[in-house]
């Protein structure tokens, strides 16, 4: 057969004989003729095996998901059969030869675009197969663009990418909800955040980012919890104030949304998703102001219901789907968060809310070694367990801050998915690692 | 003070007053005048505080690694003081104002470029500080380019990036040297390879890659072992033969070397590194041919000494630092490797050797479901433990293959580093996770 042509390129080959490779997406046997939709990574095309085609016999044996190589002629469709606006809607492949590259067993459920209506458990039980569905592929295309555009934007702003470690020696920020690893004859832990590492690395590279896995052993099976997620982390030195961090994070989100809009128009349509509105300058209010606006008493944080209401109020007032909330009580946040010098009871940490939930958090950090040591003691931590971190600040660290966002959560929120598991290709939770864990004794390995 | 100018941009501001921010790299107090080298992420510049400068008093209090903001005038140097070919070698900053952003304690050792001569243990004991040294930063600049150019090249070839999981449910490819995670009331494991996941994902996306962490619990502390490394993985469907995989991997390495050459010239000079030579077509020989060439008896693999000698022979014969070796005994390799149909005792796996060690391995995989099941049984594996993987092949998978390379090992080899720990920003081994593990009881957390 001829060299492979991608299905997305067929429009350039009208009147020519080509060879395509891909999967049987749909087969419609009409007796004398057999129609197909074929699918490869670049798209879909209709094929027809006419009654006099030498491939007719083979065509009749094919089923959905068979992998085939097909030689045929690219024909213009008659005007009345043109599907305007659809990929390859004006052409058709007249099939001359079919070579079966791999067979497929009968599908356990309907995988067609219109018939696909599985509950999430079934989807995850058959993740390997379900990944092929256009709706599911669309989710990961969007996630891909989120992650890739994050890296692009960071690089464009002079940020250096580093590889944050997964295995950590101790639990720096509190011991709850951490996974323990049997590390030779010792214990180690899966990282909950690259926070301390990115703060170290800015003292050598000034501006750094990482795309890394973080882990939470949360014994809860809600629609918002995964045990393993992708964290997009940034940290920057030589800031004037926490507002530089806010601005950089805002520009980052704006860039990501712009790229998703531009590169995923088709996917957004398929998933019926509408991107949130980011106005020219995202509204930014203190926690105290936010609580006042909500008519709520002073508190250390917003609860989920308040987050929702605040987003609605801001949307009505300004048209923005996003709002920054800053200035949390210092003692309720980690030791490294920078207290406001004029009012040290409140810190210069911030969260970005959108559509009722947190998308991103960050803020300014303490860079003065003496102040950092004082906080370590006040927070009741053991300085020996973070000695490497402290060394970075002992020898001169610039005023700095940073932010982090979760790739799965952002994917979920952008696309309006109901469960964060849909936004993870291989979601892990307390009940599932690929397959369900109960009745699946992995302890014998 | 004025807005910050990056040190690397100072050449554009001759005669002007500017403000820079950075670290004191060197201070030379000559009594009436104080000279500095300042450093930021973009480079270095000499500064001078003249005897009549209002900043003289502050200048005398500064020490190495102080973080400062400095305002001054960019002056051309007199001809006799020009350092040709050196960044900012023709200018000097005449210091008018100094603001100390953060102090630094006295350094525990000489951090100057010429005086830096620490054993690796001391370097790792002070990783946070040592990361600032230009030699160390240069290593990670090169690693960064390796990883980033891998992604770029994969994207240019239509590969889709996916996030391979860290937590795995069972030990698919043999239980030795795997880290166990206490996963709620069950056991889980840290991934040793994204192999099975990338094979699943190509059945939806055809061509995929990932940059991911893999883990080996090897109880050995050699110069080549880390417990956590970055793996660069690729997998592609619709290949004609394993040679398509070889060619793609060759093009990938060629592209990475090209980018390192182009973007890291300065770093390569600093580290006195020479890139290996990749000729127009990398020599490719079977294991049997390789052993014959070495005058060695038939065997299931090359030993390290044979790998070295083979590379030397090939270099002498062809000028190539690289050589592909393919065709290993089928039963000595994992179940998924594709046996040569004409001689099933040997498989279509391959390794790329360079300068005596393996840089990359890969090959064609079995895509036929029946053949795969047969292998699973012959290899004595439990199909239930890889049911998700098997499902991908049950429903039609194209002929496929892929490859993987380790980012730290490639960094080490390209730069001629003596120990792979130098090529990991935060190296983990059986004795160290940031700090040494003995005498550091982490079990109390």
Strand content of chain A: 25-35%
The top-level CATH class of the largest domain in chain A is: Alpha Beta
- How many separate domains of chain A? 2
Distance between the termini of chain A: 47 Å
Classify the fold: give the CATH topology of the largest domain in chain A. Answer: BirA Bifunctional Protein, domain 2
What kind of oligomer do you see? homodimer
Mean pLDDT of chain A: 95
Cα-based radius of gyration of chain A, to the nearest Å: 27 Å
Q: Helicity level of chain A, as a percent range? A: 25-40%
CA-based shape of chain A: elongated
Specify the biggest β-sheet of chain A.
8 strands, mixed
Chains forming the largest contact: A-B, 102 and 101 residues
- Strands of chain A, count: 19
Structure class of chain A: alpha+beta
Supply the CATH superfamily name of the largest domain in chain A.
Bira Bifunctional Protein, Domain 2
Task: Assign the CATH architecture of the largest domain in chain A.
Answer: 2-Layer Sandwich
Low-confidence stretches of chain A: 440-445
Structure write-up:
Two copies of one chain form a homodimer. Chain A has two domains: 7-102, OB fold (Dihydrolipoamide Acetyltransferase, E2P) (Beta Barrel), CATH 2.40.50.140; 124-436, 2-Layer Sandwich (BirA Bifunctional Protein, domain 2). Chain A has an eight-stranded mixed β-sheet, with helices on both faces. A five-stranded mixed beta barrel of chain A has the order 1-2-3-5-4. Chain A has helices spanning 56-61, 120-125, 127-130, 134-156, 195-205, 242-263, 265-270, 287-293, 304-318, 369-378, 387-394, 407-415, and strands spanning 17-29, 34-40, 43-49, 67-76, 91-102, 160-161, 167-168, 180-183, 186-190, 207-215, 228-237, 284-286, 322-326, 349-354, 357-365, 400-406, 428-429, 432-433, 435-436. The first copy, chain A, is elongated. Chain A has twelve helices and 19 strands. Chain A is 29% helix and 26% strand. The two termini of chain A are 47 Å apart. At the A-B interface, strand 1, helix 3, helix 4, strand 6 and strand 7 of A face strand 1, helix 3, helix 4, strand 6 and strand 7 of B.
């Amino acid at each position: 057969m001829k060299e492979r042509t991608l299905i997305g390129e067929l429009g350039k080959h009208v009147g020519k004989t080509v060879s395509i490779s891909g999967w049987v997406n749909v087969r419609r046997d009409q007796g004398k003729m057999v129609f197909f939709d074929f699918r490869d990574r670049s798209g879909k095309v209709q094929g027809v095996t006419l009654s006099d085609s030498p491939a007719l016999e083979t065509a009749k044996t094919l089923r959905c998901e068979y992998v085939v190589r097909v030689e045929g002629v690219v024909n213009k469709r008659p005007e009345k059969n043109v599907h305007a606006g659809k990929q390859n809607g004006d052409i058709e492949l007249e099939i001359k030869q079919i070579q079966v590259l791999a067979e497929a067993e009968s599908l356990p459920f309907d995988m067609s675009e219109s018939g696909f209506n599985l509950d999430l458990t079934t989807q995850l039980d058959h993740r390997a197969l379900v990944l092929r569905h256009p709706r599911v592929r669309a989710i990961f295309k969007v996630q891909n663009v989120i992650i890739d555009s994050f890296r692009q934007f960071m690089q464009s702003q002079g940020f250096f990418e580093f590889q944050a470690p997964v295995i950590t020696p101790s639990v720096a920020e509190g011991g709850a909800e951490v996974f323990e690893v049997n590390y030779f004859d010792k214990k180690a832990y899966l990282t909950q955040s690259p926070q301390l590492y990115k703060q170290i690395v800015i003292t050598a590279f000034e501006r750094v980012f990482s795309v890394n896995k973080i882990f939470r052993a949360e014994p809860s099976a809600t629609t918002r919890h995964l045990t393993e997620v992708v964290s997009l982390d940034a940290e920057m030195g030589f800031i004037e104030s926490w507002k530089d961090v806010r601005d950089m994070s805002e520009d980052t989100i704006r860039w990501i949304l712009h790229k998703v809009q531009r590169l995923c128009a088709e996917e957004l349509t398929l998933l019926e998703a509408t991107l949130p509105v980011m106005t020219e300058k995202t509204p930014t209010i203190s926690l105290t102001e936010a609580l006042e606006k909500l008519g709520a008493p002073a508190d250390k944080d917003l609860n989920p219901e308040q987050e929702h209401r605040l987003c609605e109020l801001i949307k009505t007032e300004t048209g923005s789907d996003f709002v920054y909330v800053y200035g949390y009580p210092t003692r309720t946040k980690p030791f490294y968060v920078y207290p406001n010098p004029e009012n040290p009871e409140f810190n210069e940490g911030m969260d970005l809310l959108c559509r009722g939930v947190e998308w991103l958090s960050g803020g300014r950090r303490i860079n003065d070694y003496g102040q950092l040591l004082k906080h370590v003691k006040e927070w009741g931590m053991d300085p020996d367990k973070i000695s490497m971190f402290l060394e970075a600040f002992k020898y001169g660290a610039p005023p700095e801050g940073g932010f982090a966002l979760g790739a799965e959560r952002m994917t979920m929120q952008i696309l309006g998915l109901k469960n964060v598991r849909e936004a993870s290709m291989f979601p892990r939770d307390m009940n599932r690692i690929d397959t369900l864990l109960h009745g699946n004794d992995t302890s014998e390995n």
